[in-house]
Amino acid sequence: MEPLDTRGLTALRAVAAAGSVAAAAADLQWSQPTVNHHLRNLERALGATLIERSPRGSHPTTVGSLVVSRAVEILGLCERLGAEVALWRDSQAVPVRIGAVPTVGARVIPRLHDQLQTRPRWQTRDEAVAGDRTEVLTAALDVTMDEHAKLVARLESGDLDLALLVSSDLDRTWIPTALSAAHLYSERLFLCVPKSIGPIAVDSQGLPDLTVLVSQTWAFSIDPGDAIDEVVRSFCLAAGFEPRVGMRMDDYAAINRMISAGLAVAMIPESSLSIDPDIEVIPMPLSACRRDVLLVSRSASAKPGVRDPIVRAHDSAIAEVVADVRTVTRQWR
Fold it and tell me: Which of 39, 184, 236, 329 has CB 3.0 to 4.6 Å from 243, enough for a Cys bridge?
C-alpha cells in the first residue's frame, strides 16, 4: 500500500463532519476540486470507496466510517506533534496535556499546579540550570477546559493525555474501551430552589418531593450528556413529569443568581453551592445520587525497550501529574 497523505484524511474527516463536499471545502478553505482530488487519492491508496454521494450530501460508507475514526486519531496526533515540537524548540520542555470540565478544573488545577512546582521536572529551564539539574528534561502542563463529550473525543484521538471528568453512571458505560478511569472523589448533590417556592417535603430516604417543581424552569448544562442533568431527569420522570429546561449554562455562579432571582431551579454539586439567603438548599442522599470525579486516561500500552529520553521524560511527567492529582484531591474523599 502506498503511503497515506494526511490531506486525504483531512478531507474525509471534514466531509464526515460537514455532510457534503461543498461544506467541507468551505470549512477547510479549500476548493471543491481540491477536496475531491484528495478523497480520490485516499480511496485509491486504501482500495476502497469511502464516501457515498447523493443529492442530499456526502456521507462515509461503512468502511469510510472506520477510516474517519482512525483519521481523527491520526490527525489529532499530527496536530499534537506540531505543538510538542514547538514547545521543545522554545523551552526544551515535554508537555502533559490535561483536560477538565470547568467546575472540577477550577477546583483542582490551581492546587495541582502548586503541587507540581515542588518537583524538579516542573521548574522552569532557568531554575533547573540554576539548581544544577540540567540533565532533567523539564515539563509543562497544558490545560484545556471544555465540555465532557469534547474532552472524551480528544482523549480518544490522542490529543489529551488525561482528563478530569464527572459521572453519575455507576457502571461508567460512557467510557470507550480505549480509555480507563480512576475514581478520585465523590461530591454530594443539592437541590437548589428559590426560597419563594416555600418548604419542600422530604421523605424517609431523604428524597425531596419534586412534584411541587412541575411548573418550574430548570437550569441544565450546555453539554447534552451532562451527568447531573441525567440524574435530575431520572428523578423527575420517577415523580411523573419531564423537567422543563428553560436555560442552559455551565457557570454555577450565574445559575445561583438565577435561582436567587426566582428564575430557575437546579441540582448543584457541593463545591459550587451558594450561601445566598434567597436560595433553599436541600441535600440529596449520597446513596441515591452523587457526582463522581474521575481521572480518565488513554489505556496504557507497553513500550518495551524504549530508550528515547523525550518519551521517557513524557511518561514520567504524566506519572507525576497522576500522583499529584491524587494528592490534591485526597482532602475531598
Answer: 236
